[in-house]
Amino acid sequence: MSITPKDVEHVARLARLELSDSEKDQFTEQLNAILKYAEKLNGLDTENVEPTSHVLPITNVMRADENRPSLPIEKVLLNAPDEEDGQFKVPAVLE
């Protein structure tokens, strides 16, 4: 598979980019070089390689969720600038 200048023009149009003729030629050449390099992967024997999402084993570094009792509402509302009926009272945003 190879990229043509027409393909580059199409992608540029989708990205709403204006490219000069020299830029189109440059990108065509660069994209073809990338595809040629990627084709080397087809020559690799991956028959006995397990699929992975990472090269190295990664584990979750977050602690496990634990149920803990909440603070009493009276203690929570001690820092509230204003409260009403056991809830924070704030200025109205909408009229």
TrEMBL record:
Signal peptide: none annotated. NCBIfam families: gatC. Its EC number is 6.3.5.-. InterPro entries: Asp/Glu-ADT_sf_sub_c, GatC. It comes from Paenibacillus endophyticus. Allows the formation of correctly charged Asn-tRNA(Asn) or Gln-tRNA(Gln) through the transamidation of misacylated Asp-tRNA(Asn) or Glu-tRNA(Gln) in organisms which lack either or both of asparaginyl-tRNA or glutaminyl-tRNA synthetases. The reaction takes place in the presence of glutamine and ATP through an activated phospho-Asp-tRNA(Asn) or phospho-Glu-tRNA(Gln). It catalyses: L-glutamyl-tRNA(Gln) + L-glutamine + ATP + H2O = L-glutaminyl-tRNA(Gln) + L-glutamate + ADP + phosphate + H(+); L-aspartyl-tRNA(Asn) + L-glutamine + ATP + H2O = L-asparaginyl-tRNA(Asn) + L-glutamate + ADP + phosphate + 2 H(+). The keyword Signal does not apply. Heterotrimer of A, B and C subunits. The keyword Protein biosynthesis applies. Keywords: ATP-binding, Ligase, Nucleotide-binding, Protein biosynthesis, Transferase. One of its GO terms (molecular function) is glutaminyl-tRNA synthase (glutamine-hydrolyzing) activity. GO terms for biological process: glutaminyl-tRNAGln biosynthesis via transamidation; regulation of translational fidelity; translation. Belongs to the GatC family. This is Aspartyl/glutamyl-tRNA(Asn/Gln) amidotransferase subunit C.
